[in-house]
Specification:
By secondary structure, the protein is an alpha/beta fold. Strands 1-8-2-7-6-3-5-4 form an 8-stranded parallel sheet, sandwiched between helices. A 7-stranded parallel sheet has the order 11-12-10-13-14-9-15, sandwiched between helices. Helix 4 crosses helix 5. It is globular, with a radius of gyration of 27 Å. The protein binds adenosine-5'-triphosphate. The site of adenosine-5'-triphosphate (ATP) has 18 residues, from helix 4. The site of adenosine-5'-triphosphate has 18 residues, from helix 4.
């Protein structure tokens, strides 16, 4: 175990990491039910932060855990927390035993999912709920009835529950035994300080408190003083040294180009296939996000857009679809800039938007970068440089997670040189530094390759006007709001359409006499086709990478003609394709029930209208009658 370095328990686990490689979850004292649950998630070996933190938390210590992005901090606190609750389950409580406070709704959902899935595997009677500020108070009251054992929420929401009397402060004092502040350094910068100050006076002294973060900051110091009592400061790395907060498995590159040429360069990187999919592209403004989406669409590159304007359930669904591999490119607007955009909007167009409306527009709790566990992102592209070096760390931390490899490419314009220098300084960027820990010039993109696409890129970029961007942004917002409402009301009226194929199939798997088998095959065929239509309709309705351009992409832009490619670029692209094949990256996933020929343009929900069904049903019945007649004739001959 890492040695305690000084009075307040500074630990530097780095020195002993090597000897601890063989320590498993069992040696850490983790409950066998949790070990079994982890093995079902193919997790068998603790990460360094888990090796260090779990025993300390089980001992009841206050812990500040600082470790690089993607290093497993969530399980580092979830596992011991659940284990402690196992031993307390059943005892009387008047309020939740554990609060897990995170800065964003997306993280709420993510941590809630992780906790729920562990509990499901362990089959223990513990209840976890998530609360977000957009929930009506009545729903919060319902969620807290019982009360649940674990609440995952944002500080703002907890203080709302307290001010509305949904959470009694006396009960918190009575029952709260563990308080976790995840992404701790972000909690204050998200303006939760007052919310935390509302809660903290009611946190009983005996309550164990944990702070988790990948980057250190004065905010973490502030929080430590606010909530912790003589904590063990667990630092697996001194935050600020590149080899610790950026996983060693991530290669970082940069390209110098003018702001004007950024679309050209990202097109070259994607179209010439010089970076590994899936790709997460960061920009600093929502408009730029839609500009990029419209621009890439013209070259046959579909992408999803993620930003603070979209409704919460759309954002969560976009993350789920991207993580499921249903599309390869996600354009994300960093929340930092969004806030700036919000402030600038507030200042300049006060008359048109009320502060409240604008705040609703840009969901303050939205965060696309911090802590979100993107799955299989192989390349992070900074099309705009982040506003801070911490922002850079968290953006790059979306790749190379859980021992995976990854890469980042930052397009640096002259105006961004200053922030780029600051970032390089953070990595102590000098000759001595070996390449795995600094930011190298991107080696695969030649000037020729870029220039070969310039004409096309500039021609298309001209067509992506401010009006087109504004319309696409409004259209996307309308689509997302409409679709999530439509889907919700449709399934409320037609719950059967949510029928579960697996259960249905199970009821008809027994042996049946010949004719009934025919009937089942026909019925199954009918049901199947409806399911396929429903699934593709739902999938189509919820596709987040659908086209937004009013102008249909011209086919000649989809492919890059051979004559435009110089040998170096061809060679580089071929090598990447081979490595992708070796890593089995390109296994394209289909949306559930995807059926060829299901046109994008139709309104998927119209598929369920009566006339559509009867027409389809009539034709299918005729075809099936033929099938039955033929089968019966065969059967008679056979008997
Ligand atoms: N012991 C482990 N072995 C392998 N994978 C793990 C292990 N623990 C967690 N993971 C996986 O690693 C990924 C990153 O975990 P997690 O999100 O907790 O990292 P993090 O340190 O919180 O990252 P961030 O700083 O971005 O919040 C998740 O997909 C998680 O399932």
């Amino acid at each position: 175990m890492g040695a305690v370095a000084n009075g307040n328990g500074e630990r530097d686990g780095r020195k002993e990491e090597e000897e601890e490689e063989e320590i498993g979850f069992e040696e850490l004292g983790v409950d066998p039910r949790l070990i079994r649950a982890l093995s079902k998630k193919s997790i068998t070996k603790p990460t360094p932060i888990q090796r260090e933190a779990i025993p300390l938390i089980l001992e009841g210590k206050d812990v500040v855990a600082r470790a690089k992005t993607g290093s497993g901090k969530t399980f580092a606190y979830l596992l011991p927390m659940l284990q402690k609750l196992f031993s307390e389950s059943g005892s009387r409580k008047t309020a939740p035993r554990t609060f897990i406070l995170v800065p964003t709704r997306e993280l709420c959902q993510q941590v809630y999912n992780e906790a729920s899935s562990l509990l499901e595997f362990c089959r223990v009677q513990l209840k976890v709920v998530q609360l977000t500020a957009s929930m009506p108070v009545a729903d919060m009251r319902t969620a807290l009835a019982g009360p649940p054992d674990i609440v995952v929420s944002t500080p703002a929401c907890i203080s709302t529950c307290m001010s509305k009397g949904v959470l009694q402060t006396s009960n918190i004092k009575d029952s709260l035994s563990l308080l976790v502040l995840d992404e701790a350094d972000l909690l204050l910068s998200y303006g939760y300080e007052n919310d935390l100050k509302t809660l903290i006076p009611h946190v009983p002294r005996r309550c164990q408190c944990l702070l988790m973060s990948a980057t250190s900051s004065s905010d973490v110091e502030k929080l430590k003083k606010l909530v912790l009592h003589n904590p063990v400061i667990l630092t697996l790395s001194e935050a600020g040294h590149s080899d610790d907060i950026i996983p060693k498995t991530v290669q970082q590159f940069w390209i110098s180009c003018s702001a004007h040429d950024k679309l050209l360069y990202i097109l070259a990187l994607l179209k010439l296939e010089l970076i590994q999919k899936k790709v997460l592209i960061f920009l600093n403004s929502i408009d730029m996000g839609y500009r990029l989406k419209l621009f890439l669409e013209q070259f046959g590159i579909n992408s999803g857009v993620l930003n603070a304007e979209l409704p919460q359930n759309s954002r969560l669904h976009i993350l789920e679809e991207f993580n499921a591999g249903l599309f390869d490119y996600l354009i994300a607007t960093d929340d930092g800039q969004t806030k700036k955009e919000q402030t600038s909007k507030e200042n300049h167009i006060q008359s048109r938007y009320s502060k409240k409306k604008l705040r609703q527009k840009l969901d303050a709790e939205f965060g696309v970068v911090r802590g979100i566990d993107f799955k299989n992102v192989f390349t992070v592209v900074n099309l705009d440089m982040p506003q801070s070096s911490a922002g850079y760390v968290h953006r790059i931390g979306r790749t190379g997670r859980a021992y995976n490899t990854g890469a980042s490419v930052s397009l640096v314009s002259p105006e961004e040189e200053e922030i780029f220098e600051e970032i390089k300084l953070m990595f102590g960027d000098d000759e001595k530094q070996d390449s795995s820990k600094s930011i190298e010039p991107f080696p695969l993109l030649t000037k020729n390759a870029v220039e070969s696409l310039r004409y096309r890129a500039e021609d298309v970029a001209k067509g992506v006007t401010k009006v087109a961007i504004r319309e696409a942004r409004a259209q996307d917002l309308r689509n997302e709001i409409l679709n999530s409402e439509k889907l919700k009301s449709h399934f409320e009226v037609n719950p059967r359409d949510l029928g579960n194929k697996e259960n249905f199939g199970g009821r008809y798997s027994c042996h049946l006499e010949f004719n009934f088998i025919c009937f089942c095959m026909i019925f199954w065929e009918q049901f199947n086709s409806q399911c396929i239509i429903l699934a593709s309709a739902t999938a189509d309705l919820l596709k987040h990478d659908k086209l937004l351009s009013k102008k249909a992409p011209s086919s000649h832009l989809r492919e890059v003609p051979e004559y435009l490619l110089d040998p170096t670029t061809k060679e580089a692209s071929k090598i990447l394709k081979l490595s992708r094949a070796a890593m089995k990256i390109d296994t394209k996933k289909r949306r559930p029930g995807f059926k060829k020929g299901f046109g994008r343009s139709r309104d998927p929900l119209k598929t369920f209208s009566a006339e559509e069904k009867s027409h389809k049903g009539e034709k299918r019945r005729k075809d099936n009658d033929e099938v039955i007649k033929h089968k019966k004739k065969k059967a008679k001959q056979g008997m």
